[in-house]
Design brief:
five-stranded mixed β-sheet, 1 helix, mainly beta, 82 residues, Ubiquitin-like (UB roll), 5 strands
Length: 82
């Protein structure tokens, strides 16, 4: 099985699920080829109801998309403002 490497970042309230990383710091993760963004979300234990936007290489992505070697992935929660 081929192993791929990706960089993952989590933002705002999701950062508590990836302790030990500075703001904006990426976590390098190795995954089996064919892993989806949903499978990675589950592996990182990010609650589905807290993930509102997923970015893959700077473009909004969907959970069912397969991750490719070298992807830069970001999970973003809903952001309040006012």
């Amino acid at each position: 099985m081929k192993i791929i490497k990706v960089d993952v970042r989590v933002f705002a309230t999701l950062r508590r699920y990836m302790p030990g990383y500075a703001i904006g710091e990426a976590k390098a993760i190795e995954l089996p080829d064919g892993t989806t963004l949903e499978e990675l979300r589950a592996q990182l234990k990010l609650p589905l109801d807290e993930v509102k936007v997923i970015m893959r290489n700077g473009i909004q992505a969907e959970l069912e998309e397969k991750i490719e070697d070298g992807d830069r992935i970001a999970y973003v929660p809903a952001v309040g403002g006012g």
